[in-house]
Amino acid sequence: NSKVIQTPRYLVKGQGQKAKMRCIPEKGHPVVFWYQQNKNNEFKFLINFQNQEVLQQIDMTEKRFSAECPSNSPCSLEIQSSEAGDSALYLCASSLDNYAEQFFGPGTRLTVL
Amino acid sequence: QQNVQQSPESLIVPEGARTSLNCTFSDSASQYFWWYRQHSGKAPKALMSIFSNGEKEEGRFTIHLNKASLHFSLHIRDSQPSDSALYLCAVRSSGSWQLIFGSGTQLTVMP
């Protein structure tokens, strides 16, 4: 069973508010991914890290989203100014390397009112 | 840009049936192919993966890959009610760090 921990499980924010969610990857996994799963089950890759370094991120992430994976602390994904369209399930996954199976956490369900 | 499509969107089968789920991709240089399963309210979990043309079987599950036709599939033998879930295919292109997921097939196995 996956041991990726995500907090909080549910997050409710007003438009324009900051929304921050955290992820503790599985022990020993240096690679961390963030995805957004919308109500139509569509996955969108947001960003990934190897140790503390960003490997790849999409344009959306660069503008309103910020993410980090500091050493000895949980990884985090923060939306600086939430919009209604950001309402989704945010999934964190970790893996041994970029070719291995990704182990997912249960997600943080964000609702932007 | 990789485009991954799944069919059908939803499927209802009786217990014991053989179920086939399909996935097509657009990038012929794709190298890594995965099937994930997501039960309602739970985290997606990898079922199987395949990296070269052909077939791979694990228990009741078989995965087929045909790179020339840009298609791979998942077959479930003797489907069980516990198999009811969202099935997601995912593809990784050469030189990319990200997995591109399809939008899923919602499978319901009726007892």
Characterization of the model:
The complex is a heterodimer of chains A (113) and B (111). With 113 residues, chain A is mainly beta. Chain A has one helix at residues 59-64, and strands at residues 5-7, 10-13, 19-24, 31-37, 43-50, 53-57, 65-68, 75-79, 88-95, 103-104, 108-112. In chain A, strands 2, 4, 5, 6, 9, 10 and 11 form a seven-stranded mixed β-sheet that branches. Chain A has a four-stranded antiparallel β-sheet with strand order 1-3-8-7. In chain B, the strands form two sheets. In chain B, strands 2, 4, 5, 9, 10 and 11 form a six-stranded mixed β-sheet that branches. In chain B, strands 1-3-8-7-6 form a five-stranded antiparallel β-sheet, with no helix packed on it. Chain B is mainly beta. Chain B contains no helices and eleven strands. Chain B is globular and about 45 Å long. Chain B starts with a strand and ends with a strand. Chain B is 0% helix and 59% strand. The interface between A and B is medium-sized, with 22 and 21 residues.
Fold blueprint:
The complex is a heterodimer of chains A (113) and B (111).
Chain A: E1 5-7, E2 10-13, E3 19-24, E4 31-37, E5 43-50, E6 53-57, H1 59-64, E7 65-68, E8 75-79, E9 88-95, E10 103-104, E11 108-112
Parallel strand pairs in A: 2-11
Antiparallel strand pairs in A: 1-3, 3-8, 4-5, 4-9, 5-6, 7-8, 9-10, 9-11
Chain B: E1 4-7, E2 10-14, E3 19-25, E4 30-38, E5 45-50, E6 54-58, E7 61-66, E8 71-76, E9 85-93, E10 99-101, E11 105-110
Parallel strand pairs in B: 2-11
Antiparallel strand pairs in B: 1-3, 3-8, 4-5, 4-9, 6-7, 7-8, 9-10, 9-11
* Low-confidence runs of chain A: none
Estimated share of beta-strand residues of chain B: over 45%
Distance from N terminus to C terminus of chain B (CA atoms, Å) equals 41 Å
Q: Could you tell me the number of beta strands of chain A?
A: 11
- Principal-axes geometry of chain A comes out as globular
Query: If you average the pLDDT of chain B, what whole number results?
Result: 94
Individual helix count of chain B: 0
Largest sheet of chain B: 6 strands, mixed
Task: Name the assembly state.
Answer: heterodimer
H-E string of chain B: EEEEEEEEEEE
Rg calculated over all Cα atoms of chain B: 13 Å
Biggest interface goes to:
A-B, 22 and 21 residues
Distance between the termini of chain A: 34 Å
Which percent range describes the beta-strand content of chain A? Answer: over 45%
What is the share of helical residues of chain B?
A: under 10%
Mean pLDDT of chain A: 92
Secondary structure: helix percent of chain A:
under 10%
